[in-house]
Amino acid sequence: MRTSIVPTSVGKTKITDPLFGAYVQMVAHQVIPYQWEAINDRVPDAEKAYCIENFRVAAGLQQGVHRGAIFQDTDLYKWLEAVAFCIAYGEGEDFRPIADEVIDLIAQAQEPDGYLNTYFTIECPEKKWTNLTEGHELYGCGHLIEAAVAYYQATGTRKLLDVACKFADLVDRTFGAEDGKCHGYPGHQEIELALVKLYRVTGEKRYLSLANYFIRQRGGKPNYLLEEMAGRKGNNVFPEFAEYDDKYAQTHCHPVDQTTAVGHAVRAVYMYSAMADLAMEYEDADMQKACETLYRNIVDKRMYLTGGIGSSGKLERFTTDYDLPNDRMYCESCASVGLMMFSQRMASLTGNAGYYDTVERALCNTVMAGISKDADRYFYVNPLEVWPDNCLPSTSMSHVKPVRQKWFACACCPPNIARTLASLGQYIYAQSDTALYVNMFISSQWNTTINGTEVKLDMKAEHMTGGKVTLTLETEAPVELRIRLPWYLRSPSLSRDGGEETLNVENGYAVVSVCGKTKLEIGGSVEAKFVAANRNVRADVGKVALMKGPYVYCLEQVDNGENLASIFVSPAAPIEELAPQQDLPGTLPTLQVSGRRLVQTIAQQDDLYGDPSFDVQDVTLKAIPYALWCNRQSGEMLVWMHAQV
Ligand SMILES: [Zn+2]
Fold this sequence. Notes:
This protein is α+β, with helices and mostly antiparallel strands. The chain has 18 helices and 21 strands. The protein has helices spanning about 20-40, 50-60, 75-90, 95-110, 120-125, 130-135, 135-155, 160-175, 190-200, 205-215, 225-230, 265-280, 285-300, 335-350, 355-370, 415-420, 425-430, 555-560, and strands at about 5, 15, 385, 430, 435-440, 445-450, 455-460, 470-485, 490-495, 500, 505, 510-525, 530, 545-550, 550-555, 565-570, 575-580, 590-600, 610-625, 635-640, 640-645. The radius of gyration is 25 Å and the shape is globular.
């Protein structure tokens, strides 16, 4: 029997880090109120959500039609999940009455048999479960379950959990391998990982079995979703599904046999997360192997430096190995949230700290970049290079927005970022029956109990600003602590109450036994450096990017002028770390390097082409963390710079 590693519950943590702490506070005090206004259509000049209105119509409280995307209900569910996490860490009580009221509304919109989806209830109740490819009913059920589990864990109240169980029970009666049941599965994976959560909180094995059914059934022949689509004869909800193929929703073969990350990136990583959960629950070595293979394919060949995934704007999907274009990719915020979820589960499954490199990469870059420093603007698509003039509507660049948006007609990302930041504690700490895990160095406090022993831990992480990571622990009985040593920490060292100790490293964790009041210090340096990409990444050949620790840095026009593509830097150039940018949150330094700018390429500068005639100018370049770009002025942005080689 393996020892399972469980991420800590959010309520046991408090984030004090200058950057993340500010964002977590912002989720409770700005994001939740703002998103409540957005899903009630009260943000001036923002895309309408119609989310709450749809629930009111479905509940019979007002007349009307369903408006907005077919999966709009999930905005409310993800918002509720974020509220639950805020309540859990003691910051969301102001929103509790509103949440309780909207939970009553959800219950009123639920049909007597448990069915809950405002689009089908309002528009076409006779078509329930007939369009699994596009209908998102099971996807919606998944987000309802996740919200319900979080709300139950935060408040102890069962109302939303009962609604979710009633819907899950209907799904269980409707779907399965048995005769007389529908043999389909979701067109957008999500319910699978949610059902595992529901099983863990209720102890009802049938929810786990249902999750297992959905994953096992997927990819069988004949292909359920393709047959369903053929029956609709091109009458699709989503026009772009005219180009639908079996890889889009990862139905080209059984998940356990899949070896490369294909199709729609969010669907993929949500499914892989469920596969990792099932590998753990069923101790299924084949499923674990599939997860490891898929993970390696992503991080070795299909992931951006920023932890973004999804190279194709069209159909928001993976393409082929090393295809990582910087300006027209998708890199959806939700996909990086999903990559965090998958990587976290792989760490729990294997006990290997290395998976947190990817959690951290996605979090510290793409997920953080998805939200503005004032919490009221969002990126859906996260480019590594922006020239605002070519982000034109009705072109192949129309999906790339050069500035964050107030809201989206399809607003999956903003509440997904909110629930992720609100639950950040679960990505920092975990525990098994035998050990406590520190998975990321983010200043915070953690109070937990292991084998009946109360443990208080206070982490001050100053490694990014030249200091140490200090862990102050209080525990009555001996406790094993496993501290992840990240890849970028050079010459790590450990001291206990001022005395140096030998590092004992297992699976990427420094293993330390502590008892009583103990101060541990993790030393080592985190240097800013240049990175290059594998030469097969055509988009980055001959280019370098700047990183410090897990943070990717970028140039912005506001600091470096226009036409950033004309800039060249030497990978040997010294990198100076300067004070943090005053008008940006956190304490991460800005980076300064000397470089050159091509100021002339042809003699007749107004011509489009001509004989090469290069002239350069020395420039001093300033880079800021990618996570914080587009928080001052709009303009060009660039991660990968030409290298002087
Ligand atoms: Zn999204």
